[in-house]
Design goal:
The chain has 281 residues and is of the alpha/beta class. It is built from ten helices and seven strands. This is Transketolase.
Length: 281
């Protein structure tokens, strides 16, 4: 990755985070914490990794992305909007009556959304099914799925992992956003999922742990996912919940709460300052 590519990704990630704040503030509801922790991942996917075409959202040979932790839709929408799937201004309609940008992704309404999700654990199962279908059809497309670390407390997730290994789904890349917090508190206190990497490997999944805010590490992990053959690949991202907004970082209360007017101003001021700093580099 060149310095210029990294700079462009960092700038776009900042714009994605701003979109999260804009949308949740306008909606007076939503899930900013986990959207912000995954903002760098969303950015890398839609601006470097995924083979997609905003002008042809239903292109049959596109790569697929399933947001298994569907409540972080504000982050996905911000990435899709900035990639050109729909106007950035529409982020302000998040959760509004009649809007195609609802609290959880709807594949029937939102351009660029490949799977309707929200019930935790089900998205990864759908992604595994997509990957198997692609294999049967001889398609070269890849399937990516993002899960939360609280989500992997669901038994269905591990059934999907067993399925993916059994069918040798090397076209499936599972990403786990390990920010350490879920709606009820620290994931280790609610239902300890650790050691995540060891458990994935025990299920026959090739696994790599990275800093989910480091674009070079994200790039290296996706490269390994593409070259790994005969088994699925998983990326466990260590992240900070609420990343990029000082008062939201590592605060469980921001799992599912929108910023008020004062908090909105602080967040946008911080993100705007960071964007200007990156632009000046």
């Amino acid at each position: 990755m060149t310095a210029q590519e990294k700079k462009q990704l960092e700038m776009m990630a900042c714009k994605v985070r701003m979109g999260v704040i804009e949308g949740t503030h306008s909606a007076k509801a939503g899930h900013p914490g986990g959207s912000l922790s995954a903002a760098d991942l969303f950015t890398f996917l839609y601006f470097k990794e995924l083979r997609v075409d905003p002008n042809r959202p239903g292109w049959e040979d596109r790569d697929r992305f399933v947001l298994s932790k569907g409540h972080t839709a504000p982050g996905l929408y911000a990435a899709l909007a900035n990639r050109g799937f729909f106007p950035v201004e529409d982020l302000l309609t998040l959760r509004h009556i009649g809007s195609y940008l609802q609290g959880h992704p709807n594949m029937n309404e939102t351009p660029g959304v490949d799977m309707s999700t929200g019930s935790l654990g089900q998205g990864i199962s759908a992604a595994a099914g997509m990957a198997l279908a692609a294999k049967y059809q001889g398609k070269s497309c890849r399937v990516y799925a993002l899960l939360g670390d609280g989500e992997i407390q669901e038994g269905e997730v591990w059934e999907a992992m067993m399925f993916a290994h059994h069918y040798k789904l090397d076209n499936l890349c599972v990403i786990i956003d390990n920010n350490g917090l879920q709606i009820d508190g620290n994931v280790a206190d609610v239902m300890n999922p650790y050691p995540i990497v060891d458990k994935l490997r025990a299920f026959g999944i090739e696994t790599m742990e990275i800093d989910g805010h480091d674009f070079e590490q994200i790039e290296a992990a996706f490269y390994m996912a593409r070259v790994t053959k005969g088994r699925p690949f998983a990326i466990v991202m260590k992240t900070v919940k609420g990343k990029g907004v000082s008062y939201m970082e590592n605060q469980v209360g921001w799992h599912g709460k929108a910023p008020n007017d004062e908090e909105y101003e602080i967040a946008m001021r911080e993100l705007s300052a960071h964007l200007a700093e990156v632009e000046a580099m």
